[in-house]
Amino acid sequence: MKKTYTAKQEDIKMKWYIADAKGQVLGRLATRIAAILRGKHKPIFTPHLDTGDGVIVINAAQIKVTGRKLKQKVYRRYSGYPGGQREVKLEVLLAKKPATVIRLAVERMLPGGPLGSDLIKKLRVYADDKHELTGIKPIVLEAIK
To answer: Which of 50, 56, 98, 141 has CB 3.0 to 4.6 Å from 19, enough for a Cys bridge?
Structure first.
């Protein structure tokens, strides 16, 4: 009888990857990043454990979106108070805070709860090609076509 494999703490080794968002489509890049943060690319993947790796995203300001999303996609948040609903279009958010666009896309693809909170902490997004994590020697992710 075969048994289900569960990763042990000593089996989990974390690596860092670097992804260049220049010219990449937002959704396709976000799904790839979410899978790496979750650990689905590893044979030791366990759904209820953090077996994933860290990801650094550079050139977030040069991300592409398809169709009419730039004008039509709206990000909403609500404070809970009357009149506290705020809306911002993707075009405006991409101009002001490009790192937030990628972070939100990836965060919404991860599970909710404590596991998702731990996973999103391993994501670093930078608007340009400069980042301060050069000492860890990240592995370069190939472009997604």
So the answer is: 141
